[in-house]
Amino acid sequence: MEKTAEELKIVVKEMYTDIANQSKEENETSCCGAGGCSTVDHAVFAEDYTKLGGYDADADLGLGCGIPTAFIQIKEGDTVLDLGSGAGNDCFVARAMVGDSGKVMGVDMTDVMIDKARENADKLNFNNVEFRKGDIESLPVGGNQIDVVISNCVLNLVPDKEKAFAETYRVLKAGGSFSVSDVVLKGELPANLKNDAEMYAGCVSGAIQMTDYLNIIHKTGFSDIVVQKEVVVDLPDAILSKYVSEIEMKDFKTGKVGIYSITVSANKPECTPGGGCC
Question: For domain 5-266, which architecture applies?
């Protein structure tokens, strides 16, 4: 039976609570970041942050699928919002870009992640980085407040992606931008892979078709939509064979079906309907 949106959120929250209580090394060598089984781990997706300004090893749990700050202009003094901020990894990289005069906010729905991120910010003596508990589909942030929104391998886990992007649009200032690294699909993922709860929390089964993903962004009202980076996720046969038939395996190998990590950027128009300037 297909899970409801609330049931899926509970699955994700429980999984990421487990992840928050593990080291990066444990997350990279275990199932979906937690649990010790051999399905998909986040090391398949994660990129190397160690040479980036603002990097803090305690905040890096190896959970991302890109580096969203690399594909958007973040200026000194900007206010940046990170959706699904985890232990604070991308927030601290963004903080190095906005400087002392800027502000960075992270939103996450998992208590343990919020606690971990706040501990890291306190350790670094940052007074312009804050973490709020909240739901990406209903952000605890006022409208027209944010210069840049970033997110890393999180929105694919949100059941209602239209609401998530609508909320992103709402909180951005006119002329603001977002950069999101996420996981999407090309072709139809086999049902037994798509419906597995552990795979969902491991950033696979929550993904939707790339064309649908980009259409949601366009429908929300964003302009200048650009896929800045696209990388096929090469899942080993040992993993795929647990979820797909031999015929389905061939579809993966020939590119008929694929899982991709993408980084997408877009802008909220300077002039928006009802804003008095159109």
Answer: 3-Layer(aba) Sandwich (3.40)
Of 114, 104, 121, the C-alpha closest to 135 is 114
Q: Is the pTM of this model over 0.90?
A: no
Neighbour-count burial of 104, counting CB atoms closer than 10 A to its CB (0-12 exposed, 13-18 middle, 19+ buried): buried
| More reliable by pLDDT, 258 or 135 | 135
Tokens of 88: 């604070």
Q: Are 150 and 179 in contact (CB under 8 A)?
A: yes
pLDDT above 90 (res 17): no
Distance, CA of 71 to CA of 179 (rounded, Å): 7
First-to-final CA distance of the chain: 47
Measure the CA–CA gap between 20 and 39, rounded to whole angstroms: 19
Q: Can you give the residue ranges of every domain in the chain?
A: 5-266
Answer yes or no: are the C-beta atoms of 80 and 146 closer than 8 Å.
Answer: yes
β-sheet bridge partners, residue 260: 184, 232
pLDDT above 80 for 65: yes
Work out whether the CA dihedral 184, 156, 206, 29 comes out positive or negative.
positive
